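User: Last request for today: this protein with magnesium ion, please.
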Amino acid sequence: MTVEVQAKTPEAAQTVLSPGALEFLRALQREFGTRRRELLARRAARQRAFDAGEDPDFLPETRAVREGDWRVAEAPADLMDRRVEITGPAEPKMIINALNSGAKVFMADFEDALSPTWHNVLAGQRALAAAVRRTLVHEAQGKTYRLGEALATLVVRPRGWHLEERHVHVDGAPISASLFDFGLFLFGNAHELLERGSGPYFYLPKLESHLEARLWNDVFNFAQDYLRIPRGTIRATVLIETLPAAFEMDEILFELKDHAAGLNAGRWDYIFSFIKTFRARPDKLLPDRAQVTMTVPFMHAYTELLIKTCHKRGAHAMGGMAAFIPNRKDPEVTERALEKVREDKRREARAGCDGTWVAHPDLIPVAMAEFDAVLGDAPHQKARGREEVAVRAEDLVNADVPGGAVTEAGVRNNINVALQYLSAWLSGTGAAAIHNLMEDAATAEISRAQLWQWRTHGATLEGGERVSEALYRRLKDEELASLQGAHLETAAELLDHLVLNPEFETFLTLRAYAHLD
Ligand SMILES: CC(=O)SCCNC(=O)CCNC(=O)[C@H](O)C(C)(C)COP(=O)(O)OP(=O)(O)OC[C@H]1O[C@@H](n2cnc3c(N)ncnc32)[C@H](O)[C@@H]1OP(=O)(O)O
Ligand SMILES: O=CC(=O)O
Ligand SMILES: [Mg+2]
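Assistant: Here's the final one, the structure of the complex with magnesium ion:
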């Protein structure tokens, strides 16, 4: 058995998916595929303990790491000042617009913002390879897009450990999507990036434990040796976007030490993970999605701990994504988005973040101004230790949202957004503006997870009615009737399953992937 591509590879993508690249992917999967599966089984075992009533907590066995005196490696020059990072799906036009945008960093996404059709993942890899070599050109709507002179630093986000790329099989089974995205980008671009004075930089999504960070670290060492580049060349910023990982921030940085470039507060997946972790707990119901803001106690506690942890270890502490996006055709929507984003970035910069994320190029000036006001000419504010922060385990698991309520409007909104997002995703679009908010896989996960949570535990709406299967079906039919678009029927079937199945599905993208392509 060997490595097999299960789908037609467009001719243009054959340079990316070269025999050498496939050989490298095979080596990665053979070396790390089993450990990946063991760690996924460990996630499930841990969840069974949470379902039985255990709360996540700091690990006794890693106390020495938390209390030890160590720091991560110094950031490379082009990741030293990352005050504003723009993110977007790894698509040619987005890549050009983002690299030209004036942001310090561009995170090219194969995870939350990309619908992983075979076409999309290959087109993304191809476009990134051309972007690294400064040759990327794209034609759309009668316009030619080219890269300018001053470009943002490129960071790539491969898909998470839970996903597989079913179009490539190694020894008869699908390859890990993380290894596929990471391996293909690294193989094709590591040497070129180094020759150009940069390096292979990654964002690592959806980790649930330091053992998963250890796996990434071992993948990095293996890959660097294979490609004959020095260990420590790869640099990774880890998203702390699951509740279990919030208890292992020190440990995650420690595992990646020489490869670590920071932590990022991935707020949307974090909220999703909070719901998922406490799926069996009626005492942990969250209110309407719009009310779970960054200032509610558990979100505040988590970001404070992230900043403190990073600065103690010499790592960048990165803020997250405000979902409000401007609309160039609607000044009122734009004004509201700018105001909301300004408020969010001001809070992050003042709290000690060294940088933040924006979803749209028109938000860069606002975010930049707020970080400039705090950082001035300094590239970061790691010297602010935030030693006064004292976050306890109970602060991270406290589900109180002062003034929060579950409303019919909230149920309807979750149904509407989930349907629209699923239909976009099935059509090959992984990030979309819906009701003037950026929606991607992480935000859609919150919507469908809340519906499951409220239905399973019979949450009481403000008017006294309880959320039930009948209520969900009635509102879903009404929302569905108001929508138009491709794949809505499949989206509705998927949502019914995600909301009504007695078992909580761990990721919507796992189930929806069967319907893609
Ligand atoms: C929870 C998380 O993981 S957050 C990170 C993952 N999510 C993301 O990265 C989402 C990023 N944002 C986006 O994908 C987009 O902004 C969307 C889909 C929400 C909206 O995109 P559009 O509908 O194209 O917005 P709009 O029409 O206002 O765009 C105007 C221009 O800005 C460009 N643009 C918009 N967002 C971006 C971006 N993030 N990066 C680069 N360019 C962008 C568009 O391509 C368009 O360019 P053009 O004028 O050359 O045609
Ligand atoms: O990936 C980011 C998030 O908020 O989720
Ligand atoms: Mg995320």
